[in-house]
User: Fold this.
Amino acid sequence: MPIHSSFKSGVPQDRALRKINEMKKCIFLFALLIVTEKSLLAQIQWASDSISTDKIEWNNYSTTFLGDVNNNIPFIITAIPNNGLAANIDETNTPVDISFNGSLFRFRSHMSEKSIFLDTYDSSEVYFLTPGIYAQNADKYEFQVSLNAKKVITPWTQVSRFSNFQLNTFKKGYGFLGGYKTSWGNFIAVELRKKGSDTAFTAAFVSWKEMKPKITGLFTTKDFNNLFKIMTRPWDKTIHSTTVPLNPVFEPTENNIILTMKGEVYIKNALEYSLLKNNSPLTDWKINDFDNNLIWLKNLSPGDYVLKIRYAKQRHNVTEYHFKIKPYWYQTGLFQILITLFIIFIIGFFTLLYNLTRQKRKLFEKEKQKEKSENEVKSIRAQLNPHFVFNALNSVQGLINKNETEKANKYLADFATLMRSTLASSNKNTYSMDEEIKMLGYYLQLEQLRFPFQFRIIVEETINPSTTEIPVLLLQPLVENAVKHGVSSLQEHGKIEINFSRQEKNLIVKINDNGKGFNKTKEQDGYGLKLTNERIKLLNEMSKNQQINMQVQQNEETTIILTLENWLS
Assistant:
C-alpha cells in the first residue's frame, strides 16, 4: 500500500488555547486515572538497548507491514509471535477504537487509512522493525510508542538500533525499534514520522487479545469421508459443516471422533487438550498429536466425556466440549444388572445343589451311623435279655433247691408276665416312663420272692410319666445291680428307692440302696454295667441334643445317678 498520505501527531498552533482549556477539564479525570495508569505501566515491558536481534527466535514470529516494498519511503514491520498459530483465529478481529475522549489520537480519526491494526494471542513481546531506515538516514526519522492511546511509553526518539536479520528482500541493517508487550485487553501503538514534523506518516497498532479455541467441525467414523473432502478442498464452503452440535450422543460404533479448530495450527505444541470420562481424568493435559488444527480421539469406550482444549500460550482460556458415547446393549446398566443376577443365580444354584448333595451324603452317612448304632444298641439289649433270663433262672433254681415250690411257681408265672412285656417292647428304642416303672415293679416283685427287701418308686409331680419317653430297659440292669450287690444279703432290712425328678429340662433318675456297695472299678467292668455303659455311649452318639450321664456315689449307701439332658419339655 502506498504511504504518500500523512497525518498529524501533534496539536496545531491555532488550536493551542482550545487544547489547554480542554486539558484543564481533564485534569481531574487524569488524577483519578493516575493510579490505574501506574498499575498498567507496571505491566508493560520493552526490550533494553542491549538486546540483540540475533538472539530472537524469528521462526516463531509472523511479520506484516503497511507500505510498498518498491517504495523508498520507510514503513513499520510488525513481528508478532505465533508459536505455531496462523491468522484468522478470532472472528472479532476488528480495528482498535482510538476515537474515545482522552485518546492521543482523537484528532486523527483518519489514521486507520495509513495504519495497520493487528491482534496478538501470545503474551510474548511484539517487535517492530523499519525497513527504509538505516544508519545513514536514521537522523531524518523518529518514532513514538504509546499504550492504549493514552500514555506515552517512548517519546519521539531517533532510531538508534539496527538489525541484520534477513527479512524478505529487504536490505540488512534496517531499523529495529525494540520489543514491547502488555497485559491482555490492552494495545500498543507505534508511530513513525520525519524529524521536525508533527505528522506521522504511518503507524502500527497491536492488541493483546484473549481467546479460546473454537470448534468448527465434528466428524465421527461414519463421516470421515466428508472430512477428507474438506482437507482436500478447504476453499469449498459447500462441503463444510455449518454447525457443531452441543452435547451430542454418539452410537457405540462412533468411537473415533475428530474435531477441527478455527484457524490454522502448524506446530502441534501450540494446541493442548485433556479428556475426562465420567468426571474422572482419562487423559491429562497433553500436546496435540498432529501439526494441524484437528484433535483425533481414538477408540473411546462408552461414557460421558468432557474434552478440554486450550492454546499453549493462553492456558487460562479453556474451551470445554461435552459429548456422550452410548454403550452397546450388552454394556447397559440394566443388562449388567441382569447378567450379574443371572451369574449370582447360577452360582447360587450350583452352590445349593452342591450343598444339597453334600447334605444328602451327610444324612445318608448319619443314617447309616444311626442304623449301625441302633443295631449295636439292639445287640446290647439282646445281650442284656439273656443276662436277665440267666439271673432269673438262677433264682428259680435257688427256690427249687430250697423246696420252696410254691414260691418257685409264682416266680415263674411273674417271670413269664415280665418276659411278655419285655418281648412286646423288643422292637422299640424308647417307651414311656409308665412302662419302664411297670417293668421295674414286676422285676422287683420277682426279686422280693427271693429276698424280702423293701422298695419304692417316686415320681416328681412336675413330670408326666405317660408322655415322657426314655430308652427301653435302661434302668433294669442298674436296679438288678442294686438287688444283687446291695440288698440281697440284708433280707428284710434291705431298701431300694428309685426317684424320678426334674432339673430344668433334665430328667434325673436316682437308684439308691442301703447295701454294702461294690467295687466300682471291678463291677463297672462286669457284664451288666459294662453293657449299660456301652449302650449309653451309643445313645449319646445317636443324639447330640439328648445326652445321658451316669455317676456312682458310695458312702454308707450306694446311689447311681442318671442325668438325661434335655429329656423334658
